[in-house]
Automatic annotation (TrEMBL):
Record-annotated membrane-spanning stretches: 49-68
Domain GH10: start-end pairs: 259-557
Family: Belongs to the glycosyl hydrolase 10 (cellulase F) family.
InterPro entries according to UniProt: CenC_carb-bd, Galactose-bd-like_sf, GH, GH10, GH10_dom
Endpoints of the signal sequence: none
Keywords carried by this UniProt record: Carbohydrate metabolism, Hydrolase, Membrane, Polysaccharide degradation, Repeat, Transmembrane, Transmembrane helix
Protein species of origin: Hevea brasiliensis (Para rubber tree)
Protein name: GH10 domain-containing protein
Pfam family, one: CBM_4_9
Amino acid sequence: MTQSIQKRQFCVAKFNVTSFNSNISLVFQEIYAPACLCCAKMRISIGAYWVLVFLCIFLSSGHSIHAFSYDYSATTECLIEPQRAQYGGGIVANPEFTYSLEGWTVYGEGAIREGISKDGNKYIIAHSRTQSLDSASQTVQFEEGNLYIFSAWVQVNRGRESVAVVLRTAAGELIRAGNVIATDGCWSLLKGGIFANFSGPAEILFESKNTTVEIWIDNVSLQPFTMEQWRSHQDESIHKERKRKVRFQVTYANKTAVEGAVISIKQTESSFPFGCGMNHYIVENVDYQNWFASRFRYATFTNEMKWYSTEKKQGQENYTIADAMVRFAKQNGISIRGHNIFWDDPKYQPDWVKNLSPNDLREAAAKRINSVVSRYEGQLIAWDVMNENLHFSFYEEKLGEDASAEYFSTAHQLDPGTRLFMNEYNTIEDCTDEAANPFNYKKRLEEILSYPGNQGILAGIGVQGHFSSDQPNLAYMRASLDILATIGLPIWLTEVDVGRGPNQAEYLEQVLREGYSHPGVEGIIMFVGPAIAGFNVTTLADKDFKNTPSGDVVDKLIDEWKSKPTEIKADSEGSIEVSLFHGDYNITIKDPVSNSLTRWNYNMIKDDTTGTVHIHINA
């Protein structure tokens, strides 16, 4: 029994109790190693039975003896056969329907039956549905404060329909955890998650608003993690994705090793773009300039490049403020994300644009995009081409469904070296906003990039990251980033902030750590700043530029995500090995014999496979 526990062969399967004093047959299912394809039956005493009962309750409540590594894998492909359940199903009983329908019941007025593919794969079918939540159901235990990652493979028996996973608590609260567009004839991965703000039982349900379709479900998983385990995933990923081990070897010109050489290493720049929103106050406020330039090397102008700022009256363009901000950024080595060329929300058009005829709008928009993109050609690292294109459709309604795709094409022609982004909110923040879910984001971006002539566009994925004052749903955020990462384009968090509240600083740190640690994320811009510049949602410094708690968090992370200055003495081979964050470094080597100093610049890049960096010094 001890050996089985050490191998992580835990419940949950089934207890068959024939009488209190009898031996009990316990079926164990391996929930960790996907290679285990069978279950083992063991005969145990009644005393051991109660130990195991406690263990199963303990594990199903969200605890674990082994802290699972997080599985970042996802796919948006529709597969003929589903992949195995992640984490072996986690705390879900009979997750792959090996035991037919055991552990599963009907919720609502529908019915369930077993399905079997031609290759013998078993799954469950929810049919005869009359309400959107009529589906297969299983009750599991949740523990407040834990994070739960959900995944399942689903399809419908005809057409294409949105299928969501919904948790129903004992109090009747319905909590959405994710959704996917399911198709007939193949299996789609539904991946999501929740932060549990309750303890107790909840039912796993599947929802489709089209009650005429059957929901087919297979390989279901719900894996709990404590916040400590979640943080360990982040640290592990940061070590893997943002750092690299490097070996320096110091030799004289004659290739003799310099034993005892003292190698000093100081990082001067991080290669990960971590920046901040900037507004017009910076043009004339020296304190704001110093505050910004001392911290950040990446910026987005919050409003100053937008159409309603540069052409308030038709035909009267004014780039004075934007140009001044660009000059400041250049003087201080700050890279700029262009924000934005167009905004699809009718509310945020220049007043004179709102009621233009389609022909007049087309002409005005053509002038706008040519003006702003040409003006800053080669000076920006990115453009948000069409802002909030999943929630709004001002230009599509006026100019046709390909309007956004055409503007991506034009922007690329005018400035082919600048990366072009969709920029959307609630894709990672809120799983109840179906319009902006990762699958709809992917679908819209693919429509834009498949438009004739757009195949060569340098594109990116922009997710804004405006979080409320409530506990962020980090599980959904991570699962959404997993899905977006399958597109294969760089993901940027473009406008991160957190609503005002007593836990604002803590939640801001959680969101930033989640973004920085995710393998698919290649940049973060916060829409935060000092009070004197009007940043009143997430304020980093008060009117005297003294840090707020959120400001302390940002400064702490800037420092933490940078290698500390270090000094190491070389071994007998003149070598040292050290793990460093990606970025630029000043290296100083002190000759132990002559005490002479050699200075050297080094750029640590992520994909460099160089085993040893050789440094030659004069004897």
